[in-house]
Amino acid sequence: MAETISRRIWVLEEGQARQERENLPRERPFTIQVRAGRERRNATETTRTPGHDYELAAGLLYSQGYIRSRHDFSHMTYCVQEAGRQEYSLLTVALYAARMPALPRPEEVVIDGNSCGVSSDNLLAALGARAPESLPAGPVLPVRALAAQASEVPVGAAFFDAAGELQVARQDVRPLQALDKVIGWALLEERLPLGPGVLWLPGPADYAMMERAVLAGAPLVGSRGRPGSLAVSAAHRHGITLFAVRDDEVWLYTGRERVTAGS
Fold this sequence. Notes:
alpha/beta, Cytidine Deaminase, domain 2, 6-stranded mixed beta sheet, 4-stranded mixed beta sheet, 6 helices
């Protein structure tokens, strides 16, 4: 199935109107179901751009804590109707575990017996309990190389190795799911933690994206646009170099030791 669909649109410019055709990202419903023993649970119900569904499922289940490696599940299967036709809107992941795993969750703040939600400190502490013990030290890259990579990254998420070679790039109508596909690719290829290289986010770094980057073991994380404060805090706590390319300039928020100012 094509990842885009063509639609006729209107373009308004300088008092003139014209019609053009534009390729829009295809968006379809998608449910990821987890099976452990006799238990079944819907891990997420969402929409996505079709393609790389196994990677999306692997990356999302890894970030949620259902699986830790490729060896935690036996197979993935799409739903099959009575006529034998596959429906690509439901994907079931069969875990080896006999029971559904308990998912890690940050503790809620309780004051006078009333729950007040999750604090920033508890959110960061819960991530720290799941994060890899240490990140790879390198690579140390010149700022010009990072700016050049930014021009090569398509709309979506991507990972470059230490030599600057593009290893994987994925797109999705939902930016976070594009990142899940990249991490899922790494899990299925048994390349987690990501190790030396640069993980490019599919948008400005927010906490959900940085959480995935931390769990994936990415030492350098780049994006376009200003990151959120919790994303910067998470990067600082875990020794990640977080930067953004803005107007052809590289803005460093954490981890200055991995980036040189020279060419």
